[in-house]
Amino acid sequence: TPIFTPYTDYFCSQDFNSGVKPGFPKTIKTDDPGVLKAARHSVEKFNNCTNDIFLFKESYISRALVQVVKGLKYMLEVEIGRTICRKTTHHPLDNCDFQTNPDLKRILSCYTEVWVIPWLRRFEVPIIRCQ
């Protein structure tokens, strides 16, 4: 079931541009620092949950929503790509280039939700679905 619908950004309110409200998802820029951190946490969870020998990293964020729910819940549509870094070498993802070898190159489209609780310095990734 798709989370993003044409109706996501319409609310019954006189003040349409008042920012994020509790309980209401709001579209935000894909280059927002919070979105970028959430995407990175999603990729780290993906890397920890798969048996691929290479690390993946985010390549493109196509859509981002944020919702205030005891912290912030980010809902992202993100593309991730296989890098040249092997999981066993523990490289920082920023230093890993994407695979260029056609036999090893792989790009996945993902939907992920990341719950950020800043006062506890906690990130949770309850959902990451990639295909």
From TrEMBL:
It comes from the Eukaryota. Gene3D superfamilies: 3.10.450.10. GO terms for biological process: immune response; negative regulation of microglial cell activation; positive regulation of myelination. Residues 20-131 form the Cystatin domain. The keyword Hydrolase does not apply. GO terms for molecular function: cysteine-type endopeptidase inhibitor activity. Pfam families: Cystatin (PF00031). InterPro entries: Cystatin-F, Cystatin_dom, Cystatin_sf. One of its GO terms (cellular component) is lysosome. Keywords: Disulfide bond. Belongs to the cystatin family. This is Cystatin F.
